[in-house]
Amino acid sequence: MSAFFDRLTEVASPRIGFGCMNLSHGYGQHVPEAAAVRTLDEAFDVGYRHFDTATLYGATANERLLGKALTGKRQHLLLASKCGMAMDTESGKRVIDGRPETLRRQCEASLTRLQTDHLDIYYLHRLDRQVPIEESVGALGRLVDEGKLRAVGLSEVSAETLRKGNAEYPVSAVQSEYSLWTRNPEIALLEACVELNIALVAFSPLGRGFLAGVVQENSVLAAGDMRATMPRFSKYNLSHNLRLLDLFNDLAKTLRVLPSQLALAWVKAQSTNVVPIPGTCSAEHMRENIQAENIEIDDATLAKLNDMMGAKQVAGSRYSEAQQADIDTEEFA
């Protein structure tokens, strides 16, 4: 088993983890710190043990939030963060930088903000095309050897990049967007993870809220909501995709589960290597999501879901051309 799976076992973590980005970043909302701390406290109380953050989220605010909220609970957690992509304080723009000296500096800053002496896994958030993946992974590997990290991870990379990085230093987990309506890992990455016994940590397993019914045809996305620039959320594509969602919701009703729970059960069913990390600002949704831990779906239901919302059925790509330029993952033709 990889160090990632070992740690999940040590802390008795359910397969479903908690993606903390939404509390500080991404969808235009601002959650006051006191409310965010209460959400994280409740997440721990209802059973979450895998918490995921990043240097980028909220321009480091998300890491500081977790550092405050998880004080005294550190030994009971799998704590994950990410480096190699951050907000430039002067320009306010994202900067991808995979140079070894940058990753070391960001790691040490993450440890301070998170109030811990080590991270269970630290992901390279994005591939820096100006730096060979071997150099970036090698730098993270040295941080493992020094005891500052327990394991190395990669995010939004192709199977080829994963294999190159893993040959330099063992990679324990890869993050990639994976849900019923985002199937890109099925092109090659999931197979590579299974072969190498690497966890595939599925972010946005609820389709950025779409599969939970958060986005409707008349929805007005908040200023700064990243979904506003994603093609599948455009007015024309969304109208088509909502017709698929109606079928999905009908099936969930027949099975007597919530659509969000059915979506998470589908992700878990793809492989024991897959670990979903849904994110939410709602304590109610957080509780509903972890209840999907005990929901299993049979082969006939899986076949219905795959026919209903595969890569050929969903309208619109997951990223715009500008967003895709920063991504190394395989794409469907």
UniProtKB/TrEMBL annotation:
Keywords: Oxidoreductase. PANTHER family: AFLATOXIN B1 ALDEHYDE REDUCTASE, ALDO-KETO REDUCTASE YAKC [NADP(+)]. Gene3D superfamilies: NADP-dependent oxidoreductase domain (3.20.20.100). One of its GO terms (molecular function) is oxidoreductase activity. It comes from Vreelandella nigrificans. InterPro entries: AKR (IPR020471), Aldo-Keto_reductase (IPR050791), NAD(P)_OxRdtase_dom_sf (IPR036812), NADP_OxRdtase_dom (IPR023210). The keyword Oxidoreductase applies. Signal peptide: none annotated. This is Aldo/keto reductase. It comes from the Bacteria. Residues 15-306 form the NADP-dependent oxidoreductase domain. GO terms for cellular component: cytoplasm.
